[in-house]
Task: structure prediction
Amino acid sequence: MKIAVLSRGPKLYSTRRLVEAIEARGYEARVVDYLRCYMDIASNRPAVIYQGKRLENFDAIIPRIGASNTFYGTAVVRQFEMTGVFSVAESVAIQRSRDKLRSLQLLARAGIGLPVTGFAHSTKDIDGVIDMVNGAPLVIKLLEGTQGKGVVLAETRKAAESVIEAFRGLDANILVQEFIKEAGGSDIRAFVVGGRVVASMERQAAEGEFRSNVHQGGSTRSVRLRPEERALAVRAAKTMRLGVAGVDLMRSNHGPVVLEVNSSPGLEGIEGASGVDVAGQIIQFIEKTLVAKEGRVVRPVEG
Result:
């Protein structure tokens, strides 16, 4: 079996671990820089071309698409899909997960618990949106933000009004969410592979910080999920149609809520905190899927 890891960084931890896991099971791995791919969009023989050669005979791809490259990256994934290659994250699912507003709307429609969230266009509606999320303190998020960037905690109503007006003055789209004080600056990352949670960790914000992202100085530790949290994470990944997903949860007074569903979750933090071979779980998911969907017999690539 041949598996391509679509990644711009062959030395990144997640990319290296996926390659190691592929090769550990006797398969052939190849790291492909998706921004260096170009596409032959033909009706009879669509192709992805890389370094002047058609990428053929791949059984599966593992997209590791950066947020800033979502449009082109998902176009490459879609082109692979057109050639019949299995992707652990469908192109449409990646696009959905990157659109924070759309993903929350989809999760809400599925009845999945979320923080109380408001979205508006006009600054004339600021008061209504603030009241909708039970007033200050509240969290303001840029729709385009990632890894905790573009997230602001407004501790007073006046501060919230000022930040919202400033963002809207720059024509930036934002979400306004309730601040879940009882979480104490922590959240949970549940790693879902093939419809089940294979690993989980708790992330704790650094002192004086409310964002628990590791990129913002947060720490991690292993955590045991409650049954309702495990079920919620699986439902969230299924709603987004992601075979592999990092589902971020928070424990609130009204039960667990989903903050975000990530289509390219990093492996370093979750493997380090949980001790689980998550990369290996992803490769096993590919094996099971190809056998179940196509009746394929997957074998190591012969040298």
About this structure: The domain at 97-113+182-263 is CATH 3.30.470.20 (D-amino Acid Aminotransferase; Chain A, domain 1). The radius of gyration is 20 Å.
